[in-house]
Amino acid sequence: MTTYIFRRLLTVIPTLLGVLLAVFLMVRLAPGDPAQLLAGEFATPEALAEIRKRFGLDQAWHVQLGLYLANVVQGDLGESVRTRKPVSYELATYFPNTLRLTLGAMLVALLVGIPAGIIAALRPGTIFDLLAMLGALIGVSMPVFWFGLMAILIFAVGLGWFPVAGTGSLWHLVLPAITLSTGTTAILARMTRSAMLEVLSQDYIRTARAKGLPGRVVVFKHALRNALIPVVTVAGLQFGTLLEGAVITETVFAWPGIGQLLVGSILARDYPVVQGAVLLIAVAFILINLVVDLLYGAIDPRIRYE
Length: 306
Fold this sequence. Notes:
The chain is mostly helical. The protein has two domains: 2-73, no CATH class; 90-299, Orthogonal Bundle (MetI-like fold), CATH 1.10.3720. The chain is built from twelve helices and no strands. Helix 5 packs across helix 8, helix 10 (215-252) runs antiparallel to helix 12 and helix 11 packs antiparallel against helix 12. The longest helix is centred in the C-terminal third of the chain and has 38 residues, at 215-252. It is globular. It is a multi-pass membrane protein. Keywords: Cell membrane, Membrane, Transmembrane, Transmembrane helix, Transport. Residues 95-296 form the ABC transmembrane type-1 domain.
């Protein structure tokens, strides 16, 4: 397993280089001059030149890229154009909130999606199955921003059960986490149902039932464990997707996370922060995929890492 992990970590290097190159080029192709935005509309040419020199914007793109990569290798992500603070400080300030929101959304998705999929698979064609799949269809189809606004209107403004926006307590997390989890919950429910139906039709399940094993033992010890491999795969990918997709939810609920930071940095053409935030999300996504691969061995002992 150690060799497998080492090989996987080696593949991270070219992946991150590709991410850095793509983001570096895209943010610079976007219209707008960060020096002009920072200095103001009536800034003198001398002031603009000074700002460009300070942040290295007066150099050729390939020179900027080389300097940036050299600094990243040393752990220096640069300095924010807007706040003049280190990018690492900005990320350390905002990323924990995004991680908390993502973990909350993932917890909701697992607690709702997997049981719904199991019930639907155990009673195919019944009202439970139809309701679960209808809910999954609605969850996949519903725009996140619309669901978030409706949740605020009904549960925060109308009923007053939860805060409207911001962070600070566990109650602030409830509506954003549920909103962010809708699509993932639906996907997990459908995947769990599909995997369980396939496993429940296998011969060893019929044999276990013929031997007189209790239904809960057949379902949870034999069927569910073997059905978890595709579910865990999708859950891992969805966790990474939630990290990336938190931008809309954070904007709707004024949640101070990486999404809010990215939106503000893109509008201000704050290149160092945009590059650092995307790099952090890419690293998190890669590590999550590695953890998911390692979980396969814990779920199914037949899997060996070479």
